[in-house]
Each structure stands twice: as structure tokens, then as C-alpha cells.
Amino acid sequence: MWKGTSSGRVKSPDPASPLPTTQHAIVQDSMGKPRLVTEAGVPALLPGTALVKTEAVALNPSDHKMGAYFPAPGAVVGMDFAGIVIAIHPTNPANPRNIAVGDRVCGIVHGSNPGRKEDGAFADYVRARPELLLRVPAGMSLEHAATLCTGLSTNLLALWEPEGLALAATPDTPAATPFPVLVYGASTATGTLAVQLLRLSGLEPIATCSPRNFDMVRGFGAAQCFDYTRVGVADEIKKATGGRLRHAYDCITDADSVAICYGALSRAGGRYVCLEKCPEELRTRRAVKHEFILGYDVFGEEVPLSGGYERPGDKSKYARAVEWFGVFQRLLDEGRLRTHPVQVLNGTGLDGVLKGLEMLKTGSVSGKKLVVRV
């Protein structure tokens, strides 16, 4: 077994050993449902890519939703992973952090991708772009590291892209005068990362979540926490922020969350960003600029979905994502970013993923990120 070192690098595999050709993977069946297969093909190592031996994967709500709404039979499921780099294509122009064979890394891929079905994370081996990998600090477990990159990618789009909240303040250029930003669903893995990034940017994160998660969310940096189930909570938030709230980030996106976010924003309006397509009838205020973002946009490629989730591809978003991953690497190395609490599922390798997807579907997860050791 490979052993870790203080540099976060492990012993490199024998370069004379051939790369594997088959693997275990969670793929969509003919109905879009996830199933474990034992002889899936290992993705070919293409120019500009690395091959990672998967050690841990983290589960996201999209992992069960994609097959239900956008079935792509044969597509490998999953976005978040961590593991050991075992190969890098020699033609690799974009590797700004000098990711090398033997590095412990975490990353994001476009799982359940109808356009490139081998791209998912729930597999023994993952093909990824080195520029969208983070080197895992020596003191961080791969189980915790696996939770990071989808949340970070989503947040860079939601907080700083023009189609998101378009915040000027960043961790590198914090706001001179703090102002409130609402994070609805702050106890989710994406939410706790958002709270940290907002605090690092000199802003005032205002959180909604279950009261049982208040202490956790405050620990990540929330200035105030509100119970999203309370009648009149939007007015409570508006009063607590002195009517100054101009930015709302909805990590949940249902009828209640939209109504609360809209109600909490100032009389003058503001910006609202969500992670799901929102029905027009819920957009009740013309003064609120309403956008939803899709995490897949960080790849800069066409997203071949439908129903408003399709994207033409935007290389400029990819270029900015690469820059942001450099910022995230530095924050990790400096110990300024913490991972969400994890629940490591028992099971034999990828079998645990199927159990975890059922847990996400039934809504039985709160305040934890589900992780499976591969």
C-alpha cells in the first residue's frame, strides 16, 4: 500500500506497469438508475488529462437527480472524488499547480454526462483535468478532501460570476465595509463553504438552517442564524439586517426557500442566485435579479441537457475557474478552509454509493456529507 509523506505525495507506481483497462463503476442503467458494474472501461488518458486512482468519493444531490431527470444509459455517475495521481498525459499544457504522479488530490468531474459517458467519479479510476485538481494537504484525509471540489466550483460561480451574485469582495480583496449576504441552506456542504468564503471576503454571512445545526454553521463563520421553518422568518432576517440585504444565495431552491429569500431582500431589491431552475411563478419581485447557476459550467464545455439546463459552453468561465482553484489551493495550504462534517458509509467499496444515493433521495441526511471509501 502506498504511504503518505509530509509533502502530500505518495510513492509513485511503477512506470513500467500498464494502466488498467477495466474497473468497477457506478453507471446508469437503461432507465437511468445507478447500478454497480464490474467490467466498465477505464477512461483513456487524453491530452490535457490525468488519471487518478480513486480512494474516496463524496455524494451530491445531483448524483441521484441526474439519472431521474436526464437519463444517460451507460454514463458513470458522480462528481466529487479524491485519490492518487497514477498517470499524466505528456501533452498537458494546463497544469498550473504542477500536479504530479503520486500526488494526493481531490477534484471534480462531470458525472452522468450524456456527452462523455466515461467521465464520472464513482469508479476505481477517474480521468480529470490537472488544473481542476487540488493537492490535498498532508494533514487532511482523502475522505474529507473528497467533499470539496463540487462545492467550491458551485460557489465560485454563485458568488463571483456575473450571472451569480457578482460580488466584488474576494478572499484576496476583502470588503472594506462588511455587508450581509444570505445563505439559505447554510448547513449543506455547499453552504458551509459559502459561509467560509464570504467571511474570508470580509462579508457578513447570514444563514438559514435547522436549529440543530446553528452551532456548526456559526463555527464556520455565520454572523447570524435563522430557523427556516419559523413563520415570518423573512421579516426577521430583514429586520436583523436593517433592510440592507441585497444578496441572497439559495442552496436549496424550492417554493419556500425562494419565498423566504425574496422576502428577506431589501425593498430596493437585489440579486438572488439558486442551484435549480426556478418556476417563473415563484419570481414575484421585478426588483430582484434572478439567476440559477450550474456547476458544470466550470468545465467551459457544452452541457447537453434540456429543459433550461442546457449550456452552450463558455471557455471564459473555465479560465476563471482555473484561477479560482489556485486561490482555493492557497487557502487550503494555509489552513483557512475547512471541510464539511462527513459521514463515511459502511460498505464494500462502491456498493456504499448505492446506499448513500438512497439516503439522499429520502432526505435522511442533515449537516453531514456522505462519503464512501473506494
Automatic annotation (TrEMBL):
The keyword Oxidoreductase applies. CDD domains: enoyl_reductase_like (cd08249). SMART domains: PKS_ER. Keywords: NADP, Oxidoreductase. One of its GO terms (molecular function) is oxidoreductase activity, acting on NAD(P)H. The keyword NADP applies. Residues 29-371 form the Enoyl reductase (ER) domain. It comes from the Eukaryota. Residues 1-22 are annotated as: Disordered. Pfam families: ADH_N, ADH_zinc_N. PANTHER family: HYPOTHETICAL OXIDOREDUCTASE (EUROFUNG) (PTHR45348), TRANS-ENOYL REDUCTASE APDC (PTHR45348:SF6). Belongs to the zinc-containing alcohol dehydrogenase family. This is Zinc-binding dehydrogenase family oxidoreductase. It comes from Achaetomium macrosporum. The lineage of its organism: Eukaryota, Fungi, Dikarya, Ascomycota, Pezizomycotina.
